[in-house]
Backbone:
């Protein structure tokens, strides 16, 4: 039955989450019993976090929306740049030899050093968040998309060449469809990174966003401990949701993948 199949599929994840929550609450209680200094700053009680969330949910959602909006814009910009670079590199070996080393070298720059530089140059928190999110997105997208474009079936390519198909036809009819699973692998990696990049810029001096709340509550110390932890958890949830959103789009765009066909058969 459908509900039994769904239950069996999600049971391990449910057990894992319950286990993490139990361990978390136990550690919090243990730290307090052992009189560890600032115990709630290390592992706060979950029920205290829930109470704080009930009081400040509106603030978290409004500031999280600012962060997520900039992350999405940067993600889309970086994804388009990564796909374009992958297409250019796959179409010309010369372009790949020229561009790929620079793309790899760009990822060697520590993001903690790059974010304040970008913010200092543009002096615009929104532009800086979008650019850093795009920077963290484009490389995994470009790398995985390039791998996908190069994975086209050689026999299918030979057949299209024998029919004198134009390059854009080969890309549209063959290379792009076969590259989609690899492309979505890159997008799923990049989506949470875009959220992280946006939050990182907000720590540099923005006026709105999760990073701003996180920094303020960290500055005020133990008295704002629960709010600080909530911003951290909320940022993690945004990253998870962005990953799940890309996964849902992948399921819709590439229903022919084996794991999706199997799930569809269970239904």
Residues:
């Amino acid at each position: 039955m459908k509900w039994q199949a769904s239950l069996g599929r999600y049971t391990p994840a449910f057990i894992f989450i319950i286990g993490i929550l139990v361990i978390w609450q136990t550690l919090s209680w243990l730290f307090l019993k052992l009189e560890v200094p600032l115990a709630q700053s290390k592992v706060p009680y979950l029920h205290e976090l829930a109470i704080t969330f009930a009081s400040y949910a509106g603030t978290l959602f409004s500031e999280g929306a600012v962060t997520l909006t900039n992350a999405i814009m940067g993600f889309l910009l970086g994804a388009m740049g990564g796909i374009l670079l992958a297409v250019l590199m796959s179409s010309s070996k010369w372009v790949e030899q020229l561009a790929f080393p620079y793309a790899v070298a760009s990822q060697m720059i520590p993001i903690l050093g790059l974010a304040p530089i970008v913010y200092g140059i543009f002096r615009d928190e929104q532009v800086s968040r979008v650019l850093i999110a795009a920077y963290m997105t484009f490389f995994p997208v470009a790398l995985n998309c390039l791998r996908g474009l190069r994975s086209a079936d050689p026999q299918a390519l030979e057949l299209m060449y024998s029919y004198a198909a134009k390059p854009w036809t080969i890309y549209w009819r063959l290379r792009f469809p076969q590259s989609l699973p690899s492309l979505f692998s890159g997008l799923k990696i990049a989506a949470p990174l875009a959220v992280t990049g946006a939050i990182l810029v907000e720590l540099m001096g923005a006026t709105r966003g999760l990073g701003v709340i996180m920094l303020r509550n960290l500055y005020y110390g133990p008295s704002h401990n629960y709010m600080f932890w909530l911003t951290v958890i909320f940022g993690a949830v945004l990253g998870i949701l962005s990953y799940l959103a890309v996964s849902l789009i992948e399921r819709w765009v590439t229903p022919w993948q084996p794991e999706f066909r199997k799930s569809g058969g269970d239904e």
Notes: Residues 82 and 168 are 18 Å apart (CA to CA). The chain has eleven helices and no strands. The chain has a mean pLDDT of 86.
